[in-house]
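Sorry to interrupt, but I need a hand with the structure work. Leave the record below and I will have a look:
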Amino acid sequence: MKYISTRNSDHRLSFSEALIHGLAADGGLYVPEQFPQFAKHDFDGPNHIRQIANNLLAPFLQGDALEASLSQICDETFDFDVKLVGLEKMPPALAIAQAKTALLELFHGPTAAFKDIGAGFLAACMSRLNSQADTPLTVLVATSGDTGGAVAAAFHNKPNLNVVVLYPEGKVSPLQQKQLSCWDGNVRTFGVRGVFDDCQRMVKEAFADDAWRTAMNLTSANSINIGRLLPQMTYYAAASRWHLRRHGVMPNFIIPSGNLGNMMACVYARECGVPIGEVVLAVNANRPVTHFLATGEYRGFETVPTLANAMDVGDPSNMERLRHLWPDMATLRKKIRVIQVDDASIRATIKAGPSDWGQVFDPHTACAIAARAQIGAENTHGASPAHWVVVSTAHPAKFDTIVEPLIGRTVELPAQLAQLLDKPDYSRTIDPTLAALKSALS
């Protein structure tokens, strides 16, 4: 299997090379040259996500330096639970229609967010690839909330690897900031005076600066890195398999979406033949995706701050992969749907979560649940209501200042988050320029 740039199909690398490079030299993103095809029975035996991940990813690493280590890498990545939880309690209209809804809980890892999966996979891969190198790899990552904490936790104290995390100062939750700033040693964290798109721009400028990129031995850990995106396919394959076994029906997915990496993982899994029906993006007030699908014209927008801060992205990087996969607009509109949710609906969904759904939701999951309520009991597969899986991307305790006033009670802090509270803050604040970052790292 080879990986090509979205901007030049003649630019072909192995998986390990694409993973280490992060961003293609022409500024494009790496994508698989082709998608392996799986039949439904290919996942009949495995049930644990480690096994499903190994089966799904094997063709993507075929002939690669990491091929022989894939099973161990999957074991290290999935050393925590991924759960598909059927919701027995639903709002009256859905309950009467006997609509099926499940939550795909991706927040049981070390930083209580779905980013733990991609970050863990990357760390396991890069620690192997660079173990004997003369120069440490520098992993440069921009985060809108959860990615940076997951990468810092996964890479902390890994030999021959350094991590630099950029986050928008004052625009992440207090607990998210604690997760970002509590690392020392080989991890350095910088609060950027700006928004996430400033952080993302700084990363792209760093990779475009050939001399500095080479001197720092830069690689990326954002979802621009194909090594972050591919392992995220595995929980869609697992959830699809689990749902089919329970109900005999192919599920549709609703995905809270910002930089679009999580959504791309889902459509990539579907392109491989994983039984996935409709893919719906739940987005907040930021509108690059809704504008694109409505007009056929893509452009970035100023970032709009919302309650679902990790989705506050005005110019999502993975739009390039989406447009590369389906360059024809008519086809793209058939392949995905987008539902926009405002802050008022997010608040209302969080507030009604315990009574209507029997669940406490973080703002991002609440955005997807609000989209599920908008969809209602619509039929996409035949005579009976469609089955939907809502992707739950973060634990609500990470957003206690938003969630607790709305539900009127305390959200219990998971053990993996509680242990961070007493750690010191090691972060520094910098201006939103590459020059400021270079100076801070000199």
User: Anything to note?
Assistant: The mean pLDDT is 92. The chain has 19 helices and 14 strands. The domain at 81-112+227-415 is CATH 3.40.50.1100 (Rossmann fold).
